[in-house]
Each structure stands twice: as C-alpha cells, then as structure tokens.
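Researcher: Structure prediction, please.
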Amino acid sequence: MQSIFSEENKVKGHWAKWEKVGDKIEGTLINKRTVVNTLTGKDQIIYELKLPNDEIWNVGGKPGIDIQMQHVRLGQIVGFEFTGIKKNSKPGMSPTKLIQVFANAKVVDSEWLAYQEMQKALEADST
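Model: Predicted structure follows.
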C-alpha cells in the first residue's frame, strides 16, 4: 500500500489575503463559524467559500465585512473585493483595508443547495 504522506497529498488551508487594491474572491457561501482570533483574543467570524474548482477558501471577518454579510445566506454566491485603504483613527495602528461584499439573494448555487436538502432528508430518515 502506498503511503498518503507525500507533498502532493498535503491538504492546504486557503485564506483570502488582501495584498493589493482590486484583489477579489468569489464563491458559494457554505459556512460561517466563529473562532477566537489568536492575535486579539476576541471572537471573529470566518466565512467559508466553495470556489468553482471546488477549493474551499476562508475569508476572515471584521466589522465592515460582518455588517455586509448579515444579508447573505448560505448557498448564495458572494464576492469580496479589496477596494481601498483608510487611515486608522487610532495612532500607531495599521491602516484599515476596505472590503466590499457583493451578493444578490437571487444568485445562488442551486446544486449546492439541493445537495444540502438531500443530506438533511437522509439524516432525518436515519433517526
């Protein structure tokens, strides 16, 4: 039997990085979870996106993103774009990266939603 431990089999965690204005990511919102941010010690929402190539990417929430994401539901296609930088009002703090969320309640991943409904039905049948 061949070992699974090889470079090509490493599972990688993908995180959106906002390095230059214009950076974007788009996919199906498949999960929202709250974790403790190791830098701040405060709760942070993580948004998981399934991209068209089936890769799963994470977008770290922050107040500006979280407010916009209140209107986005699981299964919707959502996009995030780094649109600019704003000087931080607190001296000594890094500038704030402005992230615009794009979504439309009518633009959904029908295939993903159907799969979720099928999973719920299977779980209900097994109880």
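Model: The longest strand covers residues 24-36.
Researcher: Thanks, that helps.
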